[in-house]
Design a protein that fits this description.
Elements (H helix, E strand, L loop, with lengths): L11 E8 L4 E8 L9 E4 L2 E7 L3 H12 L4 H10 L7 E7 L3 E5 L8 E5 L2 E6 L5 H12 L4 H14 L9 E7 L8 E4 L5 H24 L17
Helix pairs in contact: 1-2, 3-4, 4-5
């Protein structure tokens, strides 16, 4: 591990997205400090929001909660930033049912910026350059598969394009779907290759879920199908 070179300063790149056909919201993020999943991504049945740079968890919680209560996500996030005296140091972005929103404060560290697409937003700071966000968005748009595959593919593309200029140390995936799965809440809190590890974790979580069902179906006990509806912790 690069323990001698760790620098715990604000910075990340991330994507928030909505799959309107599946009614799924998700976010994925990676950064050059530890435990990014503990503070940056938020989802609900009505929105996906990421708060980063000088992160403020209240902004993420407020964004998804206000969207779930019926507010447009752009109005909700604009309002929370208007009430924040330190908004110039924040990056906040997200998607809802009927709007997208992205904000990069003027005091965020270069290179910083954001992109807004149809049903997705990307943002980052302390990056090697704008190609990181372009690659992240393009990979999400062009990748087949479910939300989890598309989001992890987006991070992989952003990393390949340069990523965080310090190198990444943590990554996370968070998804809200009508049918929650094991792999809808995944975190790599400290790693030399967190995006690679997130891909491995996703694949292993899918396999573990399938194995659990297969093993219990072969057991003597007749389990009711609903016993496997574990839900997801948000």
């Amino acid at each position: 591990m690069r323990r001698e070179s760790l620098r715990h300063v604000p910075g990340t790149f991330s994507i928030a997205a909505r799959d309107p056909d599946a009614n799924v919201f998700g976010a994925a993020v990676t950064t050059g400090t530890v435990s990014v999943g503990a503070t940056c991504p938020y989802v609900s049945e009505a929105a996906a929001v990421v708060t980063q740079a000088f992160t403020k968890t209240d902004h993420g919680r407020a964004g998804v909660e206000r969207a779930a209560a019926g507010e447009r996500v752009d109005d909700a996030l604009s309002a929370v930033l208007d009430d924040d005296e330190h908004a110039a140091y924040r990056q906040v972005h997200g998607v809802g049912f009927d709007s997208e929103f992205a904000f990069t404060g003027e005091e965020c560290t270069e290179w910083c910026g954001h992109r807004i697409g149809d049903d997705h937003t990307v943002a980052g700071n302390i990056l090697t350059g704008p190609d990181v966000l372009d690659a992240t968005a393009e990979a999400y748009e062009s990748t087949d598969g479910d939300m989890a595959d598309r989001l992890v593919s987006a991070l992989e593309a952003g990393e390949a394009a340069g990523g965080d200029e310090r190198g990444e140390l943590s990554a996370a995936l968070l998804i809200h779907a009508p049918e929650p799965e094991f792999y809808h809440n995944l975190r790599v809190d400290l790693s030399e290759r967190p995006v690679d590890d997130l891909r491995t974790l996703l694949e292993e979580a899918r396999r573990a879920q399938e194995q659990l069902v297969a093993e219990t179906e072969g057991a003597e006990t007749d389990y009711p199908p609903s016993v496997f509806d574990f839900g997801v912790k948000y």
